[in-house]
Design goal:
The chain has 450 residues and is of the alpha/beta class. Helix content is 27%, strand content 26%.
């Protein structure tokens, strides 16, 4: 039987555990009286941030969040309250706030996978569009138009303009829209964080089968960075968002390093790098939630993202009816069905709440990944096995915990629900604990003193 060691060095603190367990879409997909509510699931996962990028839901596509849904008549006076329809978006955002999550607000339009684009294109008056965005922020942060004081920090201008579905016009039309809007919002709201643009990804870096569209994403990004940093077209970029859809967690590490390096090369060293959409690639006819490898893929992705230069990550998505949602779905439209990946998000959340990452050595890529956190009084280690099977000895360095509890997340089961096994108290002998590990499982080891 193969043996490995994981050394948990409490002398080596590695910064804060970052909010990598964010989600695209709230606990209710928007609108009015919806037939499902995942607020309890969001609270249990401790979702730190929700990106409001899509607008699906009981009342159909494009009913909230999108600019045209909130401001339906572009010829109307943008300074008047009656020109806006805030109610569906109000209800949607409030359900997010009620779970304690921070809102990451996308200003723009949803992608349109149709030959004719109705909204996913450049507005005919970019300055007016920027003023409309201003009034939306006024409504949610300053109470304008019977609004709120939500204190939303992050405002993302558009998503996926580098794809034909996301933006129908020339790339420089988007660049100009970003410049005008970002500068207007910076002057009006100096404390918010403004960024872009939900890049579709950097797959051409390492995939030999990258499509021609995939190959266009990186040149788009390079030209965008050159545009917003040029003196004549200068614009603020507090954060840069990009997507990574992959069943190979190590690909996230490759793309994260590339994004950070290119931001730095472009002179954008203070710009945050945010993985705004993450999910696994669809494999044939098997729904992701039912694949036994998916929980370990998600767990490894969370660990690699935390150890990378990325500042935040959001899973895609919370849509109960989406085939890609491997966290939860509906049973007969009345009760929530939680998949094994839901438990993985809960496991990461436990480390996030503890706060400070401590060193566990290098990960064995494609085999074993580990992450530990402490609050000073207790500590938790998260272990993700991919292809490894064998005994692992945990060695606590400079720590005096005498007891631990082990939880094991086993994928599969009925409809992908998975099973969580929890041990009784286990003694920590001379700072060592041995655990037998099996492939595609997730373990959390909580250390404390009785």
């Amino acid at each position: 039987m193969e043996k490995k060691e994981i050394r948990i060095d409490f002398n080596k603190k590695c910064g804060k555990i970052k909010p990598m367990h964010g989600i695209n879409g709230g606990p209710r997909s928007g609108g009015y009286a919806l037939p499902f509510d995942f607020s309890d699931e969001f609270c249990e996962m401790g979702v730190p941030v929700v990106r409001t990028v899509g607008s699906a839901g009981e009342y159909g596509h494009n009913q909230y969040i999108n600019i045209h849904a909130i401001f339906p008549d572009f010829d109307a006076d943008e300074t008047l309250e009656e020109s806006y329809n805030f109610l569906p978006t109000d209800l949607y955002l409030q359900t997010i706030r009620d779970t304690g999550a921070e809102i990451f607000y996308r200003l723009g339009e949803s992608s349109e996978p149709y030959s004719r684009k109705l909204y996913a294109r450049s507005p005919r008056d970019k300055e007016k569009w920027a003023r409309i965005a201003e009034h939306i922020i006024m409504h949610y942060n300053e109470g304008w138009a019977n609004g709120f004081k939500m204190g939303i920090k992050y405002f993302e201008i558009w998503s996926a303009p580098d794809s034909p579905e996301g933006f129908a016009d020339d790339m420089y039309e988007y660049f100009e829209l970003y410049r005008i809007t970002a500068n207007h919002l910076r002057e009006r709201f100096p404390k918010i964080r403004i960024g872009a643009y939900g890049a579709r990804g950097f797959y051409a870096l390492n995939r030999l089968d990258a499509s021609e569209e995939m190959k266009s994403y990186i040149p788009f990004m390079q030209k965008f960075f050159a545009y917003v940093t040029a003196e004549e077209t200068l614009a603020p970029l507090d954060f840069f968002t990009w997507a990574c859809y992959t069943s190979n967690p190590d690909e996230i590490a490759i793309h994260t390093q590339y994004a950070r390096n290119y931001l730095d090369l472009a002179g954008l060293r203070r710009t945050k790098s945010i993985i705004c959409e993450y999910n696994t690639v669809d494999r044939g006819g098997t729904p992701p939630a039912l694949r036994e490898s998916l929980p370990s893929e998600l767990g490894a992705a969370l660990i690699l993202a935390q150890k990378s230069s990325a500042d935040m990550m959001m899973y895609s998505s919370s849509d109960a009816y989406s085939r890609a949602n491997a966290l939860f779905s509906m049973d007969d439209h009345t009760a929530a069905h939680r998949y094994a990946a839901f438990n993985v998000m809960c496991a990461y959340s436990r480390l996030y709440k503890l706060g400070t990452q401590i060193d566990t050595g290098d990960d064995t890529r494609k085999e074993l990944y580990s992450l530990a956190a402490t609050d000073g009084n207790s500590a938790t280690l998260m272990i993700v096995t991919r292809k490894f099977e064998g005994k692992t000895e945990l060695i606590l360095q400079v720590a005096s915990f005498d007891t631990c509890l082990i939880s094991r997340i086993v994928p599969g089961g009925t409809r992908g629900k998975g099973t969580v096994y929890r041990s009784k108290d286990i003694a920590v002998s001379s700072g060592r604990v041995a655990i037998p590990l099996k492939p595609n499982e997730i373990y959390t080891v909580s250390f404390f003193n009785k």
